[in-house]
Specification:
By secondary structure, this protein is an alpha/beta fold. It contains 12 helices and 9 strands. The chain folds into 2 domains: 161 residues, NAD(P)-binding Rossmann-like Domain (Rossmann fold, 3-Layer(aba) Sandwich), CATH 3.40.50; 116 residues, N-(1-d-carboxylethyl)-l-norvaline Dehydrogenase, domain 2, CATH 1.10.1040.
């Protein structure tokens, strides 16, 4: 099978290591980013730059997106000089961003109707470390044939691609992923604060609970960083609030009660209002204590 030429838009914390993995796997990669200066490392590694998303789309068999939010996806696809201007039947767009499931469906229908280009929503989980190691988990929504096309190259940066249904199903699954992470972070922050106030060495909780039913990647990574007040490598809290808001909106759309997620959203909203947005997902610990937990 002939390898596809891959276009990639969004060279942020997740996008850049994904591109590096594709280049190491000998894929031809064309890139575009809103901030051109961030392209330098991937260009040095062998990628080539496109002047616009439209030209990137025209030059690529598959276009991958990894941008901030729904508005950013709409802009790079349907805005001036967007991907849609270079779209033709037979090409595939794969969106690794995390956006609203209903907007995803709307975008996919519009792109297919206008050009015949298909869409797979394929948000990822595993963080920057997972992207660098090629161990991301991909939750995909699209036709079986289109997801199979994604699987043909996604092994360069992921451990698994799972088709969850038609377009929108990948984003709905990522919403579940974020609900679980957000709720877990919130209760871990509560637990660390309680432990410290009782006189327990909170920093020892991850080791003590490892292998038990309370264990999780959040406990082993996030709790350790909370205890050490290591906020430097975390995503901005606004991103988690965006995801919690999507979840609450989908709860209203589907009639699914989401009391835990609603409370989690309010905690992140409070965190941001107090000026701790830069503390990221694990910043919720700042709602309880500013003192050393170790």
């Amino acid at each position: 099978m002939t390898r596809p030429t891959i276009g990639f838009i969004g060279l942020g914390a997740m996008g850049a290591p994904i591109v590096h993995r594709l280049l190491v796997a000998d894929y031809a990669v064309c890139v575009w980013n809103r901030t051109p200066a961030t392209l330098a490392p991937v260009l040095a590694a062998g990628a080539r730059a496109a002047p616009t998303p439209a030209e990137l789309g025209a030059a690529s068999d598959v276009v991958l997106l990894c941008v901030t939010d729904t508005a950013a996806v709409e802009q790079v696809v349907f805005g001036p000089d967007g991907v849609a201007e270079g779209a033709v039947e037979g090409k595939l767009l794969v969106d690794h961003s995390t956006i609203h499931p209903l907007d995803c469906r709307r975008f996919a229908e519009r792109l297919r109707a206008d050009s015949g280009m298909n869409w797979v929503d394929a948000p990822v989980s595993g963080g920057v470390a997972g992207a660098r190691a090629g161990r991301l988990v991909v939750m995909a929504g699209g036709t079986a044939a289109d997801v199979e096309r994604l699987e043909s190259f996604a092994g360069a940066y992921s451990q698994r691609v799972t088709r969850m249904g038609d377009c929108g199903a990948g984003q709905a699954t990522k919403t579940c992923n974020q609900m679980i992470i957000g709720g877990t972070v919130a209760v871990v922050a509560e637990a660390l604060n309680f432990a410290a106030r009782f006189g327990v060495n909170a920093a020892d909780l991850p080791d003590c609970l490892a292998g038990g039913w309370a264990d999780s990647a959040v406990l082993q990574d996030h709790a350790r960083r909370m205890a050490a007040a290591d906020f430097a490598s975390d995503n901005a809290a606004e991103i988690m609030l965006k995801d919690m808001n999507i979840a609450c909106d989908m709860g209203r759309e589907t009639g699914a009660p989401m009391p835990v997620t609603a409370v989690t959203a309010e905690l992140y909203r409070l965190l941001i209002s107090l000026g701790h947005a830069d503390k990221g997902q694990i910043g919720l610990i700042r709602l309880y204590t500013d003192r050393e937990l170790g």
